[in-house]
Design goal:
The protein has 6 helices and 7 strands, in the order βββααββαβααβα. By secondary structure, the protein is α/β, with parallel strands linked by helices. Helix 3 crosses helix 4. The radius of gyration is 19 Å and the shape is globular.
């Protein structure tokens, strides 16, 4: 019997469900939460880069190329990908469906391994992480 892992995620929370055979219900397979990714950029950094003068020499900080928030979101996407890789390696699912907020879907897609990419059978770009099971099921094919 084929098992489909359904991942419903945004930049700070991921919910995992399994759908096996022709049963229409989803079975919870866990959650991941990253409270840091929920914060605003201003709450993640203590101060802007500045300058200082030491013994007549000026020292300047270069602004960061990538925001702290972007890094946190990327780290969270990799955590999701690692959990999926571990679960796939343990034989917990055969195929993968990803439902994610549009921006986060692209970040998550980049974090997936080649093996996980092969398992992806459906991608839906909607933010349903706070939706109920009926809302999630409405975006999945009937045969799942």
């Amino acid at each position: 019997m084929r098992t489909v892992r359904v991942v419903v995620a945004d930049q700070s929370q991921a919910r995992f469900f399994d759908s096996a055979g022709d049963r229409p219900n989803l079975k919870s397979a866990g959650t991941l939460v990253d409270p840091e990714a929920r914060k605003y950029e201003r709450d993640l950094v203590s101060d802007a880069p500045g300058s200082s003068i030491t013994a007549g020499h000026a020292h300047y900080s270069m602004p960061e190329k990538k925001s702290r928030k972007s890094r946190e979101v990327g780290i969270f996407a990799r955590q999701i990908a690692e959990k999926l890789a571990t679960d796939a390696g343990a034989g917990q699912f055969d195929e993968l469906a990803i439902i994610a907020a549009p921006h986060f879907l692209g970040i998550l897609r980049k974090a997936l391994s080649a093996d996980l990419h092969k398992r992806v059978k459906l991608e839906v770009h909607h933010d349903l992480v706070h939706g109920d099971e009926a809302a999630i099921r409405a975006h999945l094919p009937d045969h799942w």
